[in-house]
Amino acid sequence: MSAIVCANHRERPAIGYCAGCGKALCSDCIVRLSAGNYCQVCAETPDHRPPAARRRAGRMWVWIGLAVLLTMAVLASRVF
Q: Each residue of 19-39: b (16+ CB within 10 Å) or e?
C-alpha cells in the first residue's frame, strides 16, 4: 500500500490535509492555525478558502439568476 504524499513535495509523506481546499500536506507545507490546518494559500485568505472556489460559487449565482429571469420572462409572455 502506498502512503499519501504531499501535494507540493511528492517525495514527502503527508501528515494532514488543508481544511480549506483538501490538499495533502507535509510538515513543511502545513500551516497550523487555531481554526485548523491549512495550506499557505488558504491560510492567507480571510475566510481560509481557496480563491478559485469562491469565484466559481459567484458564477453559480449568476447562472441561477439568469435562469430565474428567463423563467419569469417565459411565464409572463404566456400570461399576457
A: bbbebbbbeebbbeeeeebbb
